[in-house]
């Protein structure tokens, strides 16, 4: 029977991650409910990527706990992650999606259907048989999102998904993300691009030195940040 129990909200309870002899993520607590785009902002090394990896389960907190909605099952397959630099297998575009679905335990016939739907949805049908590694950067990122989408995630994590792309490819990815949110997928992403954060964010989490120092609706954050660090960041001043 299909699992329809939502995995959301995702909750972090005083999550810390220790490394390099210090707390790289320091006692972060937050809740991600269903819906919308939450953007992680902060200077280099603030801990944005670590946060996404902790949420997705690629890293284990040194302290505290990451947990999903009570009673949710099948959670491993219902959140997916897209990385800054797409990880492409040395296979065709379609085989890259097929591999992700096979790893998630999807049966062969259904894999074909879902891969085809993803290729169509993300404008990659004509590229289906081409080697994924020969796609342009923008196409590879589109494939990475298509592959994640084929897993039918409720929550999609994206770590600086457009930092390697030109403005046109960036716009295309942003439009795709807006479409995914309209479909009901919740997005938690990091970006360096303030313009992008303004265009996409419903909510902003501002990290500084591993600490979550602002958690605001985007409309407030960009107009009236509450902390000196966030004000400096928005003004383009160097903070560390
Ligand atoms: N797996 C790890 N183990 C130990 N230290 C790590 C690990 N991953 C990252 N770090 C360190 O943790 C700090 C935060 O890194 P992180 O990549 O999360 O920052 P970020 O906010 O994403 O930065 P950027 O904007 O530059 O990508 C850095 O000092 C980094 O060197």
From TrEMBL:
Keywords, ordered alphabetically: ATP-binding, Nucleotide-binding
One Pfam assignment: ABC_tran
Domain named ABC transporter: residues: 10-234
Molecular function terms, GO-annotated: ATP binding; ATP hydrolysis activity; transmembrane transporter activity
A GO CC term attached to the entry: plasma membrane
PROSITE patterns named among the record's database cross-references: ABC_TRANSPORTER_1, ABC_TRANSPORTER_2
InterPro entries: AAA+_ATPase, ABC_transporter-like_ATP-bd, ABC_transporter-like_CS, ABC_transpr_LolD-like, P-loop_NTPase
Record-linked Gene3D superfamilies: P-loop containing nucleotide triphosphate hydrolases (3.40.50.300)
Homology family: Belongs to the ABC transporter superfamily.
Protein name per Swiss-Prot or TrEMBL: ABC transporter ATP-binding protein
Species of the source: Bosea vaviloviae
């Amino acid at each position: 029977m299909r699992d329809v129990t939502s995995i959301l909200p995702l909750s972090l309870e005083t999550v810390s991650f220790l490394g390099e002899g210090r707390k790289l993520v320091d006692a972060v607590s937050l809740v991600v409910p269903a819906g919308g785009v939450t953007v992680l902002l902060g200077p280099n090394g603030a801990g944005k990527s670590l946060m996404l990896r902790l949420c997705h389960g690629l890293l284990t907190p040194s302290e505290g706990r990451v947990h999903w909605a009570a009673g949710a099952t099948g959670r491993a397959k219902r959140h997916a992650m897209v990385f800054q630099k797409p990880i492409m297998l040395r296979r065709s575009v379609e085989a890259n999606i097929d591999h992700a679905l096979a790893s998630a335990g999807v049966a062969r016939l259904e894999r074909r259907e879902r891969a085809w739907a993803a290729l169509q949805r993300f404008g990659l049908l004509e590229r289906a048989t081409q080697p994924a590694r020969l796609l342009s950067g923008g196409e590879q990122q589109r494939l990475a999102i298509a592959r994640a989408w084929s897993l039918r995630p409720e929550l999609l994590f994206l770590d600086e998904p457009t930092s390697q792309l030109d403005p046109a490819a960036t716009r295309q990815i942003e439009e795709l993300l807006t479409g995914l949110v309209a479909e009901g997928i919740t997005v938690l992403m990091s970006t360096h691009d303030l313009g992008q954060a303004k265009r996409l964010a419903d909510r902003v989490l501002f990290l500084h030195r591993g600490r979550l120092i602002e958690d605001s609706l985007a409309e407030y954050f960009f107009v009236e940040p509450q902390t000196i660090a966030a004000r400096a960041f928005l003004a383009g001043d160097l903070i560390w």
